[in-house]
Amino acid sequence: MIPRYTRPEMAELFSDQARYETWVRVEILATEAQVRLGAVPGSALEDMRRAPVPLASRVAEIEKERDHEVLSFLAAYCEEIPEESARWVHLGMTSYDLVDTALGHTLARGTDLLLDAARALRRILAERAAEHWDTVCVGRTHGVHAEPTTFGHKLAGYAFAVDRSLTRLRAAREAVAVGTVSGSVGTYALIDPAVERHVLGALGLAAEPAPSQVVARDRHAQLVQAVAALGAVVEQVALEMRLLQRTEVREVEERRTGAYQGSSAMPHKRNPTTSERLVGLARLLRGHAGTALENVALWHERDLAHQSVERVILPDSLSVGHFQVTMATELLTHLAVFPERMRAHLEQTGGLVYSSAVLAELLATGTEREKAYRGVQAAANRTLAGGTDFAAALAEEGIDLGPLGPERFLGHHDVIRERLEQLRDLED
Fold it and tell me: Coiled-coil intervals in this record (predicted)?
């Protein structure tokens, strides 16, 4: 986790100290269940509750000698627990009963942060889409002027894409909010399943239905892929904002403060650095998605090949995804929009963007399709070659359909606005 791309709340969640706090909670919950079953004396539970969470620095110190994080954690924890009670700590459990159950709890909490951030992004996209619903601009296909649309329509498409990402994230949260307290190969050989039920119930987790020693890693791959898909949606938004900020376009602009400096050599520069950063972070998330899939296949009941990888990709995916989404929300909240530039670009080609309406009207009045298409195309080519007005070029082809304007293209636009309003009303 790189501090530059991590919000404080996510950094705290994935800190070493937070991990050991969760491990202590799991150990205490397991012992509570053991006490209820009569397998552990109540005094041991009280001693465990009184013991402080071991410091990460102490665990690291012991690990230099033991080369095993869980054993080092248990040793550090038990230093503050009387010997007659310490022997009951971790009773019947294996390391990954602790590690994976705590991980499921942490991933669920991290996903909740990302879900909240994604809802805020959906909300600002929907709000700004409604604000600019009638801000007419040129739609571009293949990077070339196509037909009129509105800036609000563009943003609405992104809002619905974020909404789909929320659906994927919710499913992924359910997939990773899972734990297991089932012993070395998942058979509950040395521990009563009631212990697992108590621990997972208290943490809000489901049980791995057929555990090996670990929680299945396809769950984690699903989460990382969902985060990467959301990242790609943010990238789509950011890429459009980058393209619209080019000097020759300049239909929008990122917020600039008085302290802004775009170039060390060229004082005039106003670079789309926030949008560029969002695009770059999406590339990182896609890389993690592929790596997560490679973590799914483990030897037999478990090997350790996944551990080093997920120590990087799980906190990084959630922290980078969370940072990216919150930054996108800030970008869109303060984005400057220039309707007059959009309108100017709509008319830049002398009316060529209205060619499809002309063709459709000719066909509707009975003109043979090939003749209509060739006539409109010939007028368009003259407009492109000579810079003449498209309506004048059409007249030379004997085509006069009256004034041309964007309203011809937006007659049914309100049906999309109604869908957008439904999206704005969502409270999930």
Answer: none
